[in-house]
Structure formats: C-alpha cells, structure tokens
Amino acid sequence: MNAAELRDKTPDQLREQLESLKKEAFNLRFQGATGQLENTARVKTVRRDVARVQTILNEKAAQAAE
After folding, report:
1. Which family does it belong to (predicted)?
2. Which of 16, 31, 45, 49 ranks highest by number of CB atoms within 10 Å?
3. Domain limits of the chain?
4. How far is it, in rounded angstroms, from Cα 58 to Cα 43?
5. What burial letters (b/e) apply to 43-54, b meaning 16+ CB within 10 Å?
6. Measured in whole angstroms, how far is the alpha carbon of residue 48 from the centre of its chain?
7. What is the rounded distance in angstroms from the CA atom of residue 28 to the CA atom of residue 37?
8. Which 3 state secondary structure label does DSSP give 3?
9. pLDDT tens across 4-30, in order?
C-alpha cells in the first residue's frame, strides 16, 4: 500500500482501513507473545501502514480546516 493509493480514498474508507490495520497489529502482537508468529516482518509493515493512514487522515483534516 502506498500513499498515492491512500490519497484517493475518502476519510471514511481510511478510518475503516485504519481500524482493520489496528486489529491486525493487535493479532500479530498476540501471536508474537504466544510464539505463533511466523512472519515477523509483517509487524513492521503493518505499523508503517497505520502511520501512513494516520498521516493521510491528518492531511485531509488540515485541508478541510482551511
């Protein structure tokens, strides 16, 4: 997922995506704690995707405030 794809989405779609990414991050942390996590790199990518979505949401909010 890249920033250009995210900028095309509406704020509601971004919020839904953020929610699903946070759920996935929680599940990955849980798997890591129980020793069931196979792809440890996925934790890093999900964290970065969450940050990307939050950044785009903040940009859209700043544009709407102007």
Report:
1. Belongs to the universal ribosomal protein uL29 family.
2. 49
3. 3-65
4. 23
5. beebeebbebbe
6. 7
7. 7
8. helix
9. 999 999 999 999 999 999 999 999 999
Quick one: average pLDDT of 25-36? 96
Q: How far apart are CA 32 and CA 14, in angstroms?
A: 26
Q: Compute the mean pLDDT over every residue in the chain, rounded to the nearest whole number.
A: 96
**C-alpha–C-alpha distance, residues 29 and 13, integer Å:** 24
Integer distance in angstroms from the first to the last C-alpha of the chain? 28
Q: What is the pTM of this model?
A: 0.91
The three-class DSSP label of residue 4 is helix
Check residue 35 and give left, alpha or beta (phi > 0: left; psi -120 to 50: alpha).
left
